[in-house]
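Here we describe the complex-level prediction in full. Unlike the single-chain runs in Section 2.1, the two entities below were treated as one system.
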Amino acid sequence: MSAGLRGGFWVLLPLLGLALCLGLASVWMNIERVDLAYTLKKMEHELAERNTLADKLSVERDNLMAPYQLKRLADKFGLGPAGPGQIRRLPASEDRPATAKP
Amino acid sequence: MAKQKKKGRDFSRFKLAFVAGLFVVLLGALWVRAGYIQLWRGSQLEALASRQSYAAEFERGQRGRILSKDGAVLATSVEAQSVYARPLDTARSAQTARTLAGILGLPEADIRKDLASKKNFVWIKRQVSDAQAKAVTDAQLPGVHLTAEYNRLYPNGHLAGQVLGFVDVDGKGLEGVEAAFEERLAAGQAKLVVQRDASGRRLYLDDQGREMDINGKDVRLTIDSHIQDLTEQALAEAVRKYEAQGGMAIVVQVSTGEILAMANYPFFNPNVSRTTAAGVRRNRAAQDVFEPGSTMKPFLVASALEEKTVTPDQLFDCENGKWKVHTKIVRDDHPHRWLTVNQIVRYSSNIGAAKVGQALGSQRYYDYLLRLGFGSRPGVTALAGGVGILHPAQSWTEIDQAAISFGQGIGVTALQMAKAYLCIANKGEAKPLRLIADPMQDQSEGSGRVFSEKTALAVLSMMREVVEMDGTGKMARIPGVPVAGKTGTAQKAGKGGYSDERLSSFVGLIPGDNPEYLVLALVDEPQNVSYGGIVAAPAVKDIASRALAYYGRLPEPALAEARPEQDPSQMLGEVLPAGQPRTPGERVPDLHGLPLRRAVELLVQKGIVPVLKGRGMVVSGQKPAAGEPWPEGRDGDNDVFVLILS
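The structure predicted for the assembly as a whole is:
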């Protein structure tokens, strides 16, 4: 084998090694990508379910806090709209002592 | 040996060449095949592979919410499951139908008919409950599937139901705010490319198409959920108490023109829109046209004052409650003889109003009505308000003019009425009504000065007398808070004329001296009692006092008790300036502002027994006027000397 050919072989060998490594890295990354996509899909599904549940619970809370529901409860406990003299005004500042007008 | 050697010829080189050639051919064939596949059929095969491993997927967003001014969610969308079937894939249809009927509460025959269909896809039931969806999943019925859809929910039930409107099963707005803001609220749709694995699972391998916002945008109303609720409660109480057909109420914040509440009774719950009659779903406060009756009188008086055709204390002969205009008789429920203009408003005299209307003239009154917004849409975004009925002034007969002066022969909507009163409450400057807080609407239309501030304040003062003095709206008084208002009891049109049914109404401005809130209530066809001052005024009082309590602005009892009736002795000090007559002179003195006892003493010294009109302890008007010669008569016959009290 001539010196020229031998020199070419030693140049080609690392290039082939590099190509092989790159190929393996590409395959590994693709596997990871698909794996991540599965995880992502699962998490998105879970997030969507939780969001839906949160939405439903919000609707339920809004329904329970609806004025007509509060009125029903107020009637049950003997409460009603405030009349003159039944409103207490608390001071805006915390350092001032609270005063209540009868 | 040599022959044998010759026979044993070495073919190895030939064999090597053959094998090498074979390899070259095979390799060449492979290259050719690869080239054929890559270059010749490459794009076609690539398309086939993509079709197998990639799929297009549509993703629908969530419809926008409708919020109240105070942040309460009035309408929202929540994911719900819908059940569908692929009839060709279903096995044992009868058993499947029976199972589904039991879970979904549908007739078995209907489901069986659906499953017998030749179609590839049929809905079984849309937007089922979570429990039903789980039961369907657990049943594992072949050919029966679930898919996610959005279901529109209204957490507050009937609260502002007619204002909100409703959507169809596909989530498209059909009425009210839902329809008016369909474009903004509607959810978008995104097309996504996803990769499929061998088992058909779909994977998002990039975010292509997912970065766009496909959710609908929210709409915020000016409606305050608490004010809306207390308005609905008060309205419902009034309608039920008087066994009426229905009712409407509107609350407006004067400074901003924001509609804080708009109630219609019977209530409409948009959650069950499909089972509700169309008449109940209609926003009657915005659309229904009615003859308003006496609630129109303040506009007439304001127009007449603005045009200087009358003065507040000008006397009008109210004909003892019966006046013939051509062939028609105009009547007052409570007969009066001489009334000043402010008393015409206070006692709601139809005859007095008709005479003020005569003095003003039909064209001028018509022009003012147009400027107040009657005869045109109120221009409130999201409300398809009615135009009402207002014929051109040229077509008014003398009877029409008289009738329109006291609010008959003209058709208005409650929304138009609220807009017109907003002008009075806003010191004569018209202001557009607003229902939508976000997105901000450009509503410069319908604004501008209609009456001078002086005129508006004069009318406001007259409306205070309606409530605070002995007027028709006494039942709207709120201790500690001055209230201005006007009652209305309109006859309703029936077959061939007016029927016996009435529309009772009351418009209140609170506080009466510098209005911050406008409250309007109408009760349709109340039974037994029909006066607006009895039927609708208490509803307005309830709404206003509860709203003030909600805002923490109900006055303390000490202040409330200090207001009601003024002490006459104090009034004497207030109203009797220096230089008032102590003895009768050659001509009629100015008795305006004198205590009743002092005025009577003066007249008796002259031998005159005055006729008293109205109630109260202070003289607010007189006839003959100050400076005129003393009248000839010496007793109360023919109203020789009339003292108007307040």
